[in-house]
Amino acid sequence: MTGHRLPRSGARGQPRSAGRRHRVAVLITDGFIPFELGIPHRILGTARTQDSHEPLYEVITCTTREARLVRSDSDVSVLVDHGPDVIESADTVVVPAVAERGPAFTSGVVAPDMASALGRIRPGTRIVSICTGAFQLAGMGLLDDRPATTHWHYTDLMRELHPRVRIDPDVLYVDDGDMLTSAGVAAGVDLCLHLVRRDHGPAVARDVARRTVVPPHRDGGQAQYIQRPVPDARGPGTAATRAWILRRLDRPPTLAEMAAHAAMSVRTFTRRFREETGESPGQWLIRERVDAARQYLEDTDLAVERIAARCGFGTAQSLRAHMQAALDVTPTQYRRTFRTVA
Question: Which of 249, 246, 252 is CA-nearest to residue 310?
Answer without folding.
Answer: 249
